[in-house]
């Protein structure tokens, strides 16, 4: 069973409580995920809008969650590297890894909202080279006691950060994306990748994930030794009709605020393919039997080895979120483990740390394993060779 949980807060002032209570609710949800067996909880970074905007600095939330949890890994999904000075990012997230005793999963990406770049005074046309250079600097800062850098955007000599991460040479690296360019670069970096089910149909990711695997091969790393995570919006209730009513109303609110924030058009619920999205596993909701059926479709159609579930979206009240998480853990987790076995194919094996391949650590530590230190949680998961999910 490989399950993560993902939070991209969609804040509605008429539905959600004030931010001081809202934040405490989120931390309670992280504690429950830790208690019930989710392996990692991911926090997003967005700015200046109520779609994700109430969470502008994932590192702050991660540090708070680290103090409230014992086992669960904690990830950024994502840190928008082009917006920030990379030394600040390296310091902030190194502190998270230390506070959590080595439980940080560091996810990074380009960002997807033009206003973020306008307000931060960053030329969006430079976002990709800034992203690549910032990732290099963060990795250097974490892996070396002292380092220097001479690049296009940043130059400095003989720098050390303190503390450095518990996980050495660096915490596990993740990249969010969908294009061949982004995912191919992630593979060459030696990173795992993050994808999302609802914006694109499954076939959209085919060429990007092929580029990721090719990049991993170029870096001397097997895809079995990295991860492909799929973020899916999930809602479960004992009553299927009630689950449908709640899920479709909240998904509509989620997509409407997402569309308006990102400037990608006007959302029209009347033209939304509710049936097709559910039957293809791009959304998952219903009673436990219906959710399991939808998740089986997710497994058939998408290419991933970790399912990252989102329960808090669209203004669902906090007590209902907790109830849904508990019901999923009780009714769906055990049954999905059995169901996933039907999708396993011959040749599966457990994840193991990759062997050294002789490449220098200085090249972004490409050949280094994804290390989870003393809190390793990912050793008991069997995968098919092509990374298609053999579990939920």
Note down, in words, how this protein is organized.
- The protein is an alpha/beta fold and 392 residues long.
- The chain has one domain (3-383): TIM Barrel.
- The chain is 40% helix and 16% strand.
- It has eleven helices and 14 strands.
- It has helices spanning 19-36, 58-68, 86-99, 114-120, 127-143, 180-189, 206-218, 240-262, 274-279, 288-301, 318-341, and strands at residues 3-7, 40-43, 73-76, 79-80, 104-109, 147-150, 155-159, 173-176, 192-196, 228-236, 283-286, 306-310, 349-350, 382-383.
- An eight-stranded parallel β-barrel has the order 1-2-3-5-8-9-10-12, surrounded by six helices. It has a two-stranded antiparallel sheet with strand order 6-7.
- Helix 10 packs across helix 11.
- The chain starts with a strand and ends in a 9-residue tail after the last strand.
- Mean pLDDT is 86; it is low at 341-392.
- What percent of the residues sit in helical stretches (DSSP H or I)? 40-55%
Q: Biggest sheet, strands in spatial order?
A: 1-2-3-5-8-9-10-12
CATH class: Alpha Beta
H/E topology pattern: EHEHEEHEHHEEEHEHEHHEHEHEE
Largest sheet: 8 strands, parallel, barrel
CA radius of gyration is 20 Å
Assign the CATH topology. Answer: TIM Barrel
Q: What is the assigned CATH homologous superfamily?
A: Luciferase-like domain
Query: How many distinct beta strands?
Result: 14
Terminal Cα span: 6 Å
Mean pLDDT: 86
Briefly note the structural class of the backbone: alpha/beta
Overall 3D shape: globular
How many structural domains in the coordinates? 1
Count of helical regions? 11
In percent, how much strand structure appears in the residues? 15-25%
CATH architecture: Alpha-Beta Barrel
pLDDT below 50 for ≥5 consecutive residues: which ranges?
Answer: 341-392
